[in-house]
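Box 3.1 A note on notation
Throughout this textbook, protein chains are presented in two layers. The first layer is the amino acid sequence; the second is a token string describing backbone geometry. Keep the layers aligned when reading.
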Amino acid sequence: MSLDIEVKFNEKENAWVIIPVGEIDIYTSPKIKEILFESLEEKNSNILIDGEKLDYIDSTGLGVLISILKKVRESENHIKIINLKSNIRKLFDITGLDKVFIIEE
């Protein structure tokens, strides 16, 4: 179980682009939370999460995304999630988080 996270800032979108590679679970959630909060401290903007290389996310990972969403919304920014695999997309649908996050195919 591992997680690599690619982070870059996209000037055109005015957004941090986050590409998690692997699994976001109870073991790796603190890492992604730390990276996202550090990015927002450096430059407060929108966040774009590209789920193309994300294989798995559990409830801990979803909790981290929600806490980050709250922080982002304080500045009237948003989180957009793209390229989710169908099993992860289903999790967002089941939990109702598809109505909380902007999710694009």
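Residues 7 and 35 are 8 Å apart (CA to CA). The longest strand covers residues 15-24.
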